[in-house]
Write a structure and sequence with these properties.
The complex is a heterodimer of chains A (about 280) and B (about 375). By secondary structure, chain A is mainly α. Chain A has 13 helices and 4 strands. Helix content of chain A is about 70%, strand content about 5%. Chain B: It is a peripheral membrane protein.
């Protein structure tokens, strides 16, 4: 086995520490900012010694933003709710539509199957801004603009190709013979799909779902243009912190902490499941 | 005769469009009787696995019919055919233990738990996998996975058992042991089995009849003995048998009393006309070119024979393989004792007409298999 010298270990530790600091510091700083007032945040030089305050969180949760110019109503909690609702339903719908489609594309090569799969992927190629204007017009004609239904539909442009292509790869990695072995033992193809293909591709489906959730959660432009205030997610809602009397850094920071938490929690939870699932699915040939 | 378990009629398999794609199986006709063990023997890409998968229902039949129990099944889903299969790639369910994998095959049969346990225990004992029944497929060796996969197929009470290279990954001793046990298991229960193999020892040991395939074409379908003694064509003759049959192309001449074969480098083999039957002689005289074949163990060293120069002399512990330069090619002889022939020495060999196979020089079809069988 390979032996590592103390020097090598030390260097490795330093490198890892640098990487962790690089990636974790902004989150850490924002976490600190969320407990500070605008004054301490903007103080020069910045200090990590301050009297923590929960006023930012209180303002977000009560929906009353107190600025120098007076009190503003903000709908942050509603935005957070919208984000959760839109992301969860979009991913759920994309899974319901995308997983069977991915299975079909993985297992059945039919005329034009590659073309259809590629077309679906190509939704990810165009910059969203490019399709936004025509989309807005269509949605207005169809009465879909400013509806949850319309937003979830548009979110499929983000979620569906991701799920389709990632999950398809996982299905292709499962030996078709494992499914044949189950079918020949007296089961229909649908039972095989549910009992063999789905569980074996489980980690892949979870990973794709998680990724799609993050993409949907972070979406900005579609929601900005197609939704009005009461249906906007946090990404758009955060604009409200740019007020006439300045930018509310403290509230922005606490809003970020709150809006990162669900995705972070989901990722941490899924990570455990992913590792477990991947080691279980390791098939020795 | 007993009832037909499987009847394959005029089956073609194309990968890609019919008549334009890759023609993997060509006009296959075959019948398998209930209780028979059939081996599909051939090299890689000969169409044997395609045939097996068409029987199982995993590959569509491009043309022709497959019947089981008198019903045409070629359009049926695998679930409707009641066949069991052991896959070459094992295809065990990764999340299940070996025991669960094997017992799983019985799930659809709705047997009581005690019956299932007993059957699984029997199979585990038969295949020498009792010690790994609680392990997961990813933690056992290829040979163990293969036996688990075989167990999963054999445990089922199916109309037909399809075994794709069932013992390819096993070490030789185990393979020899299991060959006997599996044959006994299949015969005892009156099961019908088709195994795909490229190992002729396995085919000879297990099968009642062997179907030799090459290039998608069924070359011969007969008992192991008949395939060995009366190969239908040059391919079967040279493919089956270890070491392979010696073959030499030859011209023919003859009088009313003699038959002579002219080989390369001026080697001439003279036989009496009475060494061949009348019918064979008539066939021979129609041709100017044939291919002569003789099995290595049938080549005799004898005074007055034709000279051949020894190139290799190998004692394998129980037999000697001698390769000698003969008529521009190599003649391999198998003898049961050690010999002290030295490399370069000339030996006199005799090709007994009773062990001489003669094939058509153009299409390779067999003309004669030696006098006593002709």
């Amino acid at each position: 086995m390979e032996t590592t010298s103390t020097l090598e270990k030390t260097l490795r530790l330093i490198a890892l520490t640098l990487v962790v600091i690089f990636f974790m510091f902004p989150i850490f700083w924002i976490f600190l900012m969320s407990f500070q007032t605008n004054e301490t945040i903007l103080a020069i030089p910045p200090s990590i010694i301050f009297t923590p305050t929960l006023s930012n969180y209180a303002a977000l949760i009560t929906g009353k933003l107190t600025t120098a110019a007076g009190t503003l109503d903000i709908a942050f909690m509603r935005n957070l709710g919208n984000s959760i609702f839109l992301s969860v339903t979009s991913v759920a719908l994309a899974l319901v539509l995308g997983v069977p489609a991915a299975y079909a594309f993985a297992r059945h090569k039919f005329k034009g199957s590659e073309d259809i799969a590629f077309t679906l992927l190509s939704f990810r190629f165009a910059p969203p801004l490019l399709v936004l204007l025509p989309l807005t017009q269509y949605f207005q004609w169809l009465g879909l603009s400013d509806t949850y239904f319309g937003l979830i539909w548009v979110y499929q442009l983000i979620c569906l190709p991701l799920i389709l292509w990632i999950v398809r790869g996982y299905f292709e990695d499962i030996s078709a013979d494992v499914e044949y072995a189950y079918r020949i033992a007296g089961h229909s193809w649908f039972a095989t799909f549910r009992k063999i293909a789905l569980p074996l591709a489980g980690p892949g489906i979870a990973a794709a779902g998680l990724l799609a959730f993050i993409f949907a959660w972070n979406n900005f432009v579609f929601a900005l243009v197609l939704a009005s205030a009461d249906k906007q997610p946090v990404t758009v809602g955060a604009l409200a912190f740019v007020t006439s009397s300045g930018i509310q850094y403290g509230q922005i920071a606490s809003a970020i902490v709150l809006s990162v938490t669900p995705t972070l929690a989901l990722a941490l939870y899924a990570q455990r499941y992913l590792v477990e699932g991947l080691s279980l699915g390791a098939v020795k040939g | 005769m007993s009832e037909t378990a499987l009847f394959i009629k005029g089956v073609d398999k194309f990968y890609g469009p019919i008549d334009h794609g890759v023609h993997a199986v060509k006009q296959l006709n075959m019948d398998v009787k209930k209780g028979e063990i059939i081996a599909l023997l051939g090299s890689s890409g000969c169409g044997k696995t395609s045939t097996l998968r068409m029987i199982a229902g995993f590959e569509a039949v491009s043309r022709g019919t497959i019947s089981m129990k008198g019903r045409e099944v070629q359009t049926f889903a695998p679930v409707k055919r009641n066949v069991a299969m052991a896959f070459e790639g094992y295809s065990l369910y990764p999340p299940l233990t070996v025991r669960e994998n094997i017992a799983f095959a019985l799930k659809a049969s709705r047997l009581s738990q005690s019956v299932v346990d007993e059957k699984v225990a029997n199979i585990a004992k038969l295949l020498e996998i009792e010690d790994i029944m609680g392990r997961y497929p990813s933690s056992i060796s290829g040979g163990q996975q293969q036996r688990a996969s075989l167990g999963r197929a054999l445990i089922r009470d199916a109309d037909l058992h399809l075994l794709d290279e069932p013992m390819g990954q096993l070490e030789p001793q185990l393979r020899a042991l299991l060959r006997g046990r599996i044959k006994h298991f299949i015969k005892e229960r009156g099961l019908t089995a088709i195994l795909v193999t490229h190992d002729q020892t396995e085919a000879n040991a297990l099968a009642d009849r062997i179907a030799v395939m090459e290039g998608g074409v069924l070359q011969q379908f007969d008992t192991p003995q008949m395939i060995k003694e009366r190969p239908a064509n040059l391919f079967t003759g040279t493919f089956v048998g270890e070491p392979p049959m010696n073959v030499f192309s030859a011209g023919i001449s003859g009088t009313s009393d003699t038959v002579s074969f002219g080989l390369n480098e001026g080697v001439k083999l003279d036989y009496k006309a009475s060494d061949f039957s009348h019918a064979v002689r008539a066939e021979l005289m129609k041709r100017s070119k044939v291919v002569l074949g003789i099995r290595p163990y049938a080549v005799r060293r004898s005074e007055g024979g034709v000279g051949a120069k020894v190139a290799v002399n190998q004692w394998l512990g129980d037999q000697t393989h001698i390769a000698a330069d003969f008529a521009g090619g190599t003649m391999v002889l198998v003898e049961h004792d050690r010999t002290n022939l030295t490399i370069g020495e000339t030996v006199a060999i005799r090709l007994d007409p009773s062990s001489l196979h003669v094939f058509d020089g153009d299409n390779g079809r067999a003309i004669s298999h030696g006098q006593e069988l002709a």
